[in-house]
Amino acid sequence: MKTKAAVVYETGKPIEIEELELDGPKDGEVLIRYTYAGLCHSDVHISHGDLEARLPMVLGHEGAGIIEEVGPGVTRVKPGDHVVCSFIPNCGVCRWCATGQQAICDMGATILEGYLPGERFPFTGPQGNYGAMCMLGTFSQYSTIHQNSVVKVDDDLPLDKAVLVGCGVPTGWGSAVNAADVRPGETVIVSGVGGIGINAVQGARYAGAKNLIAVDPLQNKREKAMELGATHAVGSIEEAADLARQMTNGNGADKAVVTAGIVTEEIVTGAFDAIGKGGTVVLTGLNKLSTQNVNLPGSIMTLFKKTVKGSLFGDCNPTTDIPKILGLYQSGDLKLDELITQTYTLEQVNQGYDDLLNGKNVRGVLVHEH
Known about the structure:
The protein is 26% helix and 26% strand. The chain is built from eleven helices and 18 strands. The longest helix is centred in the last third of the chain and has 13 residues, at 318-330. The two termini are 14 Å apart.
């Protein structure tokens, strides 16, 4: 079949809308009709070359839609099921899945190559084989993806909101709840309030942070953080560190979650300096894979028993955490509607990313027209 998709051909160039051929599902695969896709910063990392991916690639890794067809051996879903896509697949049997660490499932090794198991490329077009971002390619009207990438959700859940739970919401939420292990009464800093950071704010609030300081240079982001649970919102990490020390008899924050769009050495060092004895810094945001952006005084780390750790997908297990987080949305404990600043058509994808990079959006959502 044919499908219309947003493709990156070379880094630094605008995303192009292209009609591609799509092969149907084979063993373990499903054909999905995407209804919504989230505009997440990671797609910009591909188009800007911060993350080196195999090109051409159909962008989009936050998606929700309806299963149209299933291939042989598919057991997780059936045609007609409403699903949210998990940007890292989960096989269920590798060492990591088997120990409750689906976020680092071995199947995630090829998400920047964009092919399905067996080096299979369902998308083809003028330049041969097209990869799909995170094996999903949610900026296409249709895609053939692996069943390990989908999580069935309740039919009555609005997919335009549920779409955010494929990447941004669990990544931020879990960075605070799982990776930072925020406890009631703690003082927490969230550095960078975008589509990920705003959910770290929501997670830290839900986990019981007493003082929750959001850091972002943009006024609109600080306001959104206050709306969704921050107790304070400031423009710099230095201000946040001063506040944290005032609140803790001079110690500093218990936890700092770094969710900036591009994580620099300055941002990491600022977060490290802002936490006190026994504190933890969680690094969630990215930079180029080759960039050395962690340069810290080891003796301070030792003497103050500080921890710096990386977190992927908020240390979430998509098969259980996506439904759990959606349950919190249904009960009113987690806000999704308020995160969506703007919606776009597929043709407006470049505008959507301009808005993201200019700080206009907390989260933009692409609406597929069929």
